[in-house]
Design brief:
Rossmann fold, 23 strands, 2 domains, five-stranded parallel β-sheet, alpha/beta
Length: 395
């Protein structure tokens, strides 16, 4: 996803410097060309050779190092950078960056770079909360830089509080959000439903399905990376929730109906990827549950049809996409659903096909509109999400 992207990591002298080795490794695996610049103090916590081994590039420390090609190295690297992250960013380094002080290779290159800049503070809680540090961070934000909020927890100094550098996975997500995709969905609002609704039978038991939320979350992440303002209405899930999206947790189909319809008019695109129960128990009192031949016989009633309501109340220019999971007559049933519910597209799959359906990292889908039917081979759900979003943007 980061192929042909140049990432510059600035590492300053904090104990969290060792975590950047893991970040550099992950970026390289994603295809990025990673360059690390260290302050002299950072070299006390981790050696430059570690980063050189992981990235395949010379780790820069000394501004006047002559052991490289005859170009102005900090200017050359600053021009190539697609994103520049300083992590860990000490109070001292942030003060320099905020006031344009360029007295070493890291700060000099940072000042010369015109790419997006990300700052991950890491320091003692008292230093972080000091008004001077807070003012410096506000200056950095004023100049358009992203200052990543530190985590709270036990710090190396023995204190507990804010100032802990976020884990490498979080830092990677910030970089990915910045440069992974062209921002061709900027300004668009997207609502996506995900997960499995639960219908209570009684105070203990409920009816649900096998949805994990993976497909819905993959779609949400794809839209977010492309610049959209994404809201996820989330029922029960086990998949990892993407960052940088608004999440509305719900439990039942009625909860989801209420959450979706309350927000529908604001959306440019709505994708119903959740597996919503079609029926809910008509009663939840044990006294009213009848037994028949030793089995429970529970009166059921239909839940509200979210997709049909959205189709009936679709605003002009809004795109509505639904999912259709079938075990037989997939194409015929999905085409009927497209017409009946006034959707713009249906993503259909057959749960009996290997690699498709719930709980897998892959899917086999057929994209159905009123004009065409497009069948796709087995793909990862991230790739399926990209394919669906690409198609939506042609409409």
């Amino acid at each position: 996803m980061l192929k042909n992207k140049t990432v510059v990591l600035g590492v300053s002298g904090g104990i969290a410097a060792y975590k950047i080795a893991s970040l550099a490794s992950r970026l390289v695996k994603a295809g990025a060309d990673v360059h690390v610049i260290m302050t002299e103090h950072a070299c006390n916590f981790i050696t430059p050779i570690t980063f050189e081994t992981l990235t395949g590039n010379k780790c820069l420390v000394d501004t006047f190092d002559r052991n490289f090609q005859h170009n102005v190295e900090h200017v050359s690297l600053a021009k190539r950078a697609d994103v520049f992250m300083v992590a860990p960013a000490t109070a001292n380094v942030m003060a320099k960056l905020a006031h344009g002080i360029a007295d070493d290779m890291l700060t000099t290159t940072f000042l010369a770079a015109k790419c997006p800049k990300l700052i991950a503070p890491a320091m003692n809680t008292a230093m972080y909360e000091n008004p001077i540090t807070q003012d410096n961070m506000e200056i950095l934000r004023k100049y358009g830089m992203t200052v990543i909020a530190p985590a709270s927890g036990y710090l190396a100094c023995g204190d507990t509080g804010a100032g802990k550098m976020p884990e490498p996975e979080v830092l990677y997500a910030y970089i990915e959000k910045e440069i992974a995709c062209e921002k061709d969905m900027t300004g668009k609002k997207v609502l996506i439903t995900a997960g499995a609704t639960r219908e209570s039978m009684d105070p203990v038991r409920f009816i649900t399905n096998h949805s994990t939320g993976k497909m819905g979350f993959a779609l949400a992440k794809e839209c977010m990376l492309r610049g959209a303002d994404v809201t996820i209405v989330k029922a029960a899930t086990t998949a990892e929730l993407p960052m940088f999206v608004d999440v509305v947790p719900v439990a039942s189909a009625a909860d989801m109906f209420e959450a979706v319809t309350a927000r529908a008019d604001e959306q440019d695109i709505i994708i119903k990827a959740a597996a919503v129960s079609d029926y809910t128990p008509a009663v939840v009192s044990d006294e009213k549950v009848k037994k028949k031949d030793g089995d429970l016989a529970i009166p059921m009633k239909r839940t509200q049809d979210i997709l049909m309501y959205l189709g009936q109340h679709k605003k002009e220019g809004q795109i509505l996409c639904g999912f259709s999971m079938e075990t037989e007559n997939m194409l015929e049933n999905s085409k009927k659903k497209l017409e009946k519910k006034n959707a713009d597209m249906i993503i259909a799959n057959n749960l009996k096909v290997a690699g498709a359906g719930f709980g897998t990292d892959t899917n086999v889908v057929t994209l159905i509109t009123r004009d065409e039917v497009k069948e796709y081979e087995l793909m990862g759900k991230d790739e399926v999400a990209k394919t669906i979003v690409d198609y939506i943007l042609t409409k």
